[in-house]
Please model this.
Amino acid sequence: MRKLIYYVACSIDGFIAHKDGSIDGFLPEGEHITDYLESLKSFDVVLMGRKTYEFGFQFGVTNPYPTMKQYVFSRTMKESPDRNVELVSENVIEFVKHLKNETGNDIYLCGGANLATTLFNAKLIDRIIVKLNPFLMGAGIPLFSGAIEQTALELIDSQKYENGVLFLNYQVKG
Model:
């Protein structure tokens, strides 16, 4: 069975973006970016919430992960702006369960907080990789948008970069 991996950058105080969706403060350059981009080769499917997907629009990006099958979860988008991106609006949990049972590489959950909360509460997230950036945001969009059950995690790998970024790779226990 494929693993669903929530692989996300966050501030030390646990935010993945500012309230307006901007990402000022996250380090945009460095060896951590090179390693992150290299790690994407291990996935063949990516899942995104609508807000995460629409973030790229400001840069003219409608096909953010061209080497992967891309799914955007939204109840409000009626049509995908790119033929390589498939919209999913219903039966999210069943859809992801089906994806996990297909043959293939692990599945990349790149955000957002609402989708992560839904999938975590359904016990579908197998690992969480946090790209911890060395700054405090103070307020913003949290790693999870709502209440989740207290859950033990096992640290299975970590990487510290010279610029202070930490990659923390956790297996979800239970």
Remarks:
- The chain has a mean pLDDT of 96.
